[in-house]
Amino acid sequence: MEITNESNENSSQNSLSYQTESLKRGFSKKKRKLVFYLILLIHFFNHLDHGAIDACNTYLMTELNLDHSDLGSVGSSVFLGLTFGASIAGYIFNYFTPKCIVSCSIILTSLSLYFLTQSNTLFYLCLCRFFCGFFQIFTLIYFPVWIDQFGIYEIRTIWLSYLQLNTASGTMIGYAIEAVCIKKFNNWRYGFYLQCILLLFSTVVFLLIPDKFLSRNYKRTNLTREFIKNNIKITPEFLKKNNIINYDKYTNINEISIYQIEEENETIKKFNYLETIKTLFKNKLYRTSLISICSILFIITGIEFWITDYMRKILKKEDSKIFISFSIICITSPTCGVLIGGYLIEN
Question: pLDDT band for position 67 (50/70/90)?
Answer without folding.
Answer: confident
